[in-house]
Amino acid sequence: MLPLLLLAGMKEALALGPVSCDTGVTAWMLTSTALVLLMIPGLAMFYGGLVRSKNVLGTVMHSFAAMGIISVLWVAVGYAMCFGPNVAGGWFGWDSAYFFLKGIDTRVMEAGIPEYVFSMFQGKFAIITPALIAGAFAERVSFKAYCLFIALWSLFVYNPLCHWVWASDGFLFNLGARGAIDFAGGTVVHISAGVSGLVVALFLGSRRGYPYQVIRPNNLVITMLGAGLLWVGWFGFNAGSSISSGLSTAQALVATQVAAAAGAMTWLIIESYHQGKATALGFASGILAGLVAVTPAAGVVQPYGAMALGILASCVCYLAIQLKNKMGYDDSLDAFGIHGVGGIAGALLLTFFIRPSWMKEASEAAGGMWTTLQQLGVQALAVGIAIAYSAAMTLLLVFLLNKVIPLRSSGEDEMAGLDRTYHGERGYGMLNPS
Q1: Crossing angle for the helix pair 23-48 and 115-133, nearest 10 degrees?
Q2: Is residue 428 pLDDT above 70, yes or no?
Q3: At residue 58, what are phi and psi to the nearest 5 degrees?
C-alpha cells in the first residue's frame, strides 16, 4: 500500500512522535509553494491580456485581490476548516490548534516537512481557485462585490470541498477502495471554479453588446507570457502535490509536461482544420486544457496516459467553447469552457489510464478485485457532488450578496471601463482606453 499521503496526493497525518525535518523534501516543497504562487500573477497576465484595455487593470486586480483576501482567511480559519477533524457532520473540519496556525509552530509532518510549509503550500491552492472564477464574469462585476464574494465563496464552497477530498477523514477521500482520485485539484480547484464561474456569469448576464459587438483582446503577448508562467508554475502545482521529493514527484512532473504539450498541439491542429489558422490564443488554450485535465491524474497515470488526457481535453474544451458561442452565454474568458469542462474530463477519463500498480493496490485495499468501472463510478460520484455543491452554494451566495450590494457594474461604469471606475487608474497610458 502507498502511504495515506499518496492516496489523495495531499494530506498526511501528523506524527505522533518526534520526526526530524527532511531538508531535501522541505526545500522542494518551499520551491513548489513559490511556483504555485507564481501562477497567480501568471493568471493575472493571462486574463489581463484577453480583456479590453479599459478593463485590463481591473481584471489583473481580481487575481491580486485574491492573494490578499484569501491569504488572511486561510491563516485565520481556512486551514483549520480544510484539514481539521470532522465537525458539523463532516461538512468541514476544525481544530483549534489550526486557528491562526497558532498550534503548529514546532510540528513536523511524517513527510519530513514543517507543517507551516504544508499549510502555505495548500494556501496557494485556496488563493488561485477564486481567482480562476473571475475569468467567467470579467469586465462586468463590481470590485467591492467581487471581494466579498470570493471571501464567502472560499469559506462556504472551497473549504468544505477541500476537506471532503483531501482531509484524511473526508468522505470523498475514503470513498471506494482508495478514495476519489484528485491528485492536485481537478474537483477541488478546477471543477468548483469553472462551475461557480458559470453560475455567476449567468446570474450577471452578458457584457454590454455581447455577442453582437466584437470584443477583442488588448494584448495577446501578455496572455502568452501568462500562459508560460502558468505552465512553469504548474510543476509546483502537480509535482509538489506528492508532498515528497522522489519517484512520485518525478511521475507527476513528467505527466504535467506531456499533457500540456499534447493539449497545445492538439488545439493547433483542430484550429488549423476548423478555422484555417493556428492562433496564439488557441495554443495557450490548449496548454491550459492539458494542464487542467492532468491535474487530478498526475500521480496515477503514465506519460502515455497524460498525453491522451491532454489530447482528449483539448478536443472536449474546444467543443465546449464552440457550443458556448452558439448558445450565446457570456463566459468571458472561458473559465468554465476550459477549467470546468477540462476538470470534469480529466477527473473521469483518468480512470482509463491508471497505472496497473495503483489498481493492484486498490484491489488489495478492497479485499478483492477493484475494477476500472468501479473506480469510474467513484470518480463520477465525486464529480457530480463537486458540480452540484459548487453550483448550489454559489447561486445561494450571489443571490444573498446581491441583496446587500449590487454584483453587476452599472451600464455607465462598463462604458467608462472598470479601471477608471473602481481604481481611478489606467492600465496603459493611452488617450483612448476603449
Answers
A1: 10
A2: yes
A3: -60, -40
CA dihedral 106, 249, 9, 301 (to 10 degrees): 180
Strand partners, 87: 92
Average pLDDT of the segment spanning 78-94: 97
Give me the phi and psi of 109, to 5 degrees please. Answer: -80, 165
We report the CATH number of the domain holding residue 103 as 1.10.3430.10
Distance CA 289, CA 390 (A): 21
13 lies in some domain:
no
Q: Tell me, yes or no, whether 6 lies in a domain.
A: no
Domain with 393, as residue range(s), is: 18-423
Q: What value does the mean pLDDT of the chain take? A: 94
Q: What is the pLDDT of residue 407?
A: 97
* Assessment of whether the complete model's pTM goes beyond 0.70: yes
Whether 212 contacts 400, CB under 8 Å? no
SS (H, E, C) 141-197: ECHHHHHHHHHHHHHHHHHHHHHHHHCCCCCCCCCCCCCCCCCCCHHHHHHHHHHHH
Residue 11 lies in a domain: no
Q: Which long-range contacts (CB under 8 A, 24 or more apart) does 210-213 make?
A: 210/330, 211/325, 211/328, 211/330
Please give the pLDDT value at position 11: 41
Within 10 angstroms of residue 213's Cβ, the number of other Cβ atoms is 8
pLDDT beyond 90 at 49: yes
User: Quick one: pLDDT band at residue 138, thresholds 50, 70, 90?
Assistant: very high
Task: Establish if 182 belongs to a structural domain.
Answer: yes
Q: Are 284 and 223 in contact (CB under 8 A)?
A: yes
Total domains present in the chain: 1
Q: Answer yes or no: are the C-beta atoms of 193 and 126 closer than 8 Å.
A: no
Q: Which residues contact 104 (CB under 8 A, 6 or more apart)?
A: 97, 98, 115, 116, 119
Which residue is listed with cell 513559490?
A: 34
